[in-house]
Amino acid sequence: MQKDAAYWIQHLQLTKHVEGGYYHELYKSALVIPQKNLPASFKGNRHISTSIYFLLEAGQFSAFHRIASDEVWHFYAGDTLIVYELEKDGSLIEHRLGSVPEKEESFQCVVKSGHWFGARLAPGSAYALVGCTVSPGFDFLEFELAKREELSKLYPHHTDLIKMLTIS
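^ that's the sequence the OP posted. Answer follows.
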């Protein structure tokens, strides 16, 4: 049986994510770091680590957003996913997740804390199933969804990409 996006959405019990695509939280470590032991960018206690499944299908994108922690992306199934990371100096990194190293794809990439990032499928792709691991653990308290106009002012040389990967 050929596994498609619908198969994974049902099998992994994925639900819609606010940034686009679908997700399911898999793991929250039992060990928690008290807020007083974290940098000021954290607004509360944090689990040591969290992880999710994340899926994009054709026509969807993960909107530009940023979080207070590093995030490791892991490729599992499907087609090539491009993760766009804007460094603080305005440089753009394009991480290609997939299973074809000859096309400069890798199974993992890391997005640094505080960097704006978003993702979309490579042209001609049907879907990509990935995982995201965050440490210190993810919490929506530090999740910031980019506003198109504000991000375009910060990075005017990436306006076209920002238009494609923002909701408003």
